[in-house]
Every structure is written in C-alpha cells, then in structure tokens.
C-alpha cells in the first residue's frame, strides 16, 4: 500500500507520569506513516488527491501541545484516532512516539511506543418482526452512522422472510450492512448492544420475535471464538435471510474458514433447499 511518512517531527509538550514532566515539559519526536492510494495525486499532480503533509505535521504538533496524557501509550492511541477521523481517506496510520529525555536515570537514546491503527470493514445482519420494522431499521442505521468511530458504507435491500426456528410469529424484515469502524470486534458488539437497548429490544424466547436484532457476520478476515462473540457468525451459511441481503453488498467477500464467496455460499444454500425429484 502507498504511504506518506513524516519522520521524527519534534514537538515540545507536557506528557508524563511525574508532575515535573507535565509542568516543565520536554521534547518528543513523532514519526507518522499514512497509508492510502496516492495514484490519483501522482497522475494529476494535484494536492487535493493526497495528504497535505505540512498541514498534517501542524495538526500533530497542535494535538500534542493541547492534550496532556501520563502515558505514551495514551498519546499515540488518541492521536491515531484523531488522525484517522481527520483524514478519512487514510486507511491506516502507523505512529512511533519517541521520548529522548525519559526520566529513568540511565543512559539511553530514546524510549518509544509504536502503534498501528486502521479502519476495519465489518458486516452486520439486521432483523426485526415487531413494531414498525422499517422505522427500527432506519433508526438503527442512523445510530450506527452517528457513532464517532463508525460509518455505514453500504445497505442492502430490506427483504421479508418467514420466521426461522419454528416459533409462531410474524414475518421478519431482514437486511445486511457494511460498516467501516475504528472499533475492535468487542467494541462493535458493545455498540450494537447499546443500539438494541436504545430501540427497546424485546426477545423473550430463543428464535422468538424481536423489535431489532443486530449480529456481526464478518469483521475483516478475522476468526475468533469467545464466550460472547464468534466471528464469522457460526450459523450464517445456513441462513438465507442473512446470505441473500449480504450477497447484494458483499458478493465477493470470502468466508475466512470455508474459503468460498458469499455468492457461492448463497447458491449452495439455495441448491440444498431444492427438493429432489
């Protein structure tokens, strides 16, 4: 991936654990690598298609001067988030923060912390069969998009499907969403849980009716299995109400465990549902 690098930018500011560090201040050195496609700028020779590194350097300096943290880890964490939000075309940032005057009473060159932060692509399934289903969908999408660390980038058609699981109930409205997020999988789960609570989610029995249901289907190509979260969603390959809308917005997305596309999974599921002669 293409990148622009600002190397060892010197900033005098007030970060540290000890009181004298936050009062007197000291020198820090920042290296920032911005990863994004610079082809447009290279072809057009137009700064509007790239990162203005002079402006970015000034922003880093101003951020570090106007914010105070005890830990280097906190400085780079908050700075990385601020840079990705300020320059949304940047896909990833790699930051190294050096502290050459670290008060450890031993000879050294620098102490440094390095972090890499990026936008992640996450796919969600959304469903509801209580209340005003479409209004609940639109409100859930709005709340996702209003989250500072998340933006909704694709929305499938809303489809009507029959209930799954054998519990008598109204038909479902289902769909799929693509989001770009700076949140971890666990933080995405926390976010969608808060949205479900905001919409007064009701789900009294397993496979039963609900006002809103949001599930993580994919998060980049990550594979994880924790007590509260499994990615990819373990039942997705069996659910046409997940695969049909997902195939609209991510037909070529490859299941990281099964090694086939969403379109292929959907076609295989449809074939399995065709009764034999």
From TrEMBL:
Its EC number is 4.1.2.25, 2.7.6.3. SUPFAM superfamilies: 6-hydroxymethyl-7,8-dihydropterin pyrophosphokinase, HPPK, Tetrahydrobiopterin biosynthesis enzymes-like. GO terms for molecular function: 2-amino-4-hydroxy-6-hydroxymethyldihydropteridine diphosphokinase activity; ATP binding; dihydroneopterin aldolase activity; kinase activity. SMART domains: FolB. Gene3D superfamilies: 3.30.1130.10, 7,8-Dihydro-6-hydroxymethylpterin-pyrophosphokinase HPPK. Residues 206-217 form the 7,8-dihydro-6-hydroxymethylpterin-pyrophosphokinase domain. Keywords: ATP-binding, Folate biosynthesis, Kinase, Lyase, Nucleotide-binding, Transferase. Pathway: Cofactor biosynthesis; tetrahydrofolate biosynthesis; 2-amino-4-hydroxy-6-hydroxymethyl-7,8-dihydropteridine diphosphate from 7,8-dihydroneopterin triphosphate: step 3/4; Cofactor biosynthesis; tetrahydrofolate biosynthesis; 2-amino-4-hydroxy-6-hydroxymethyl-7,8-dihydropteridine diphosphate from 7,8-dihydroneopterin triphosphate: step 4/4. It comes from the Bacteria. GO terms for biological process: folic acid biosynthetic process; tetrahydrofolate biosynthetic process. It holds the Pfam family FolB. Belongs to the DHNA family. Catalyzes the conversion of 7,8-dihydroneopterin to 6-hydroxymethyl-7,8-dihydropterin. This is Bifunctional folate synthesis protein. It comes from Velocimicrobium porci. The lineage of its organism: Bacteria, Bacillati, Bacillota, Clostridia, Lachnospirales. The gene is folK.
